Amino acid sequence: MTNLIITENVSEQENLLYVQSAISEIAVHAGCSVRLNNISERAILTVNYPEQYSDIIKAEIVDKVAEIIAIKYKYDFFKKNLKIAGLSKVEKEILITSLIAADLDDDKKYSFQKIKNDTVIAVDGSFNFKLKALKKKWQDVLSCVPECFLNSQLKEFISFLLENKNKRVYIDGGLVYDSHYRRLKRSSLFGDESVKIVREVLLSNCGEIELNGNIPKEDEFYLKEYYIDKIIFSGGYIT
Fold this sequence. Notes:
With 239 residues, the chain is α/β, with parallel strands linked by helices.
């Protein structure tokens, strides 16, 4: 057996719970043991796994840590530093989510490469010391966002993000699934429930939505606002 240890400030223990939940299925199949505990001010996730599954398990864990950095850490950074007028509170959350989604794949890949060889990954430490270039990139993005951002500009920005996207996601019973019908839970990293479905869809970088069943009115409003004719409902396009 070999192991990988992931640590985080205890105030951010939810990040490690996200990793634990995300790898739970593969951990069972591979015969891993997963333990989460706190020591002083650190939350520690220890994953022990058979050597023959080392590459697969480690890649899965590092992928989820990279996701935390590219989504949760970026969200916190933008939430703290984005000073903007012209949007409602919900629309500002949608803008931040859109900015995260725009570079999500690249930010994940960069983070993954920087931490993939570590046997002990301190999420906060990696972000503060190994990923300084990522933080600078985010600051550069913020410097390009106008101080006043209108709803029409937000709509144009999201339309730009959707160009040439052909992946489809499914919304069923208020839950979002990818094209292989795997549950998507990235929006849980934000820590709040506002327009959760819309934000999950944005993070999926999909180009089309298949909707089954009712969803909260606010989510429905913004999905129609930004995805327009890209929503399919029960065999026909939603109106």
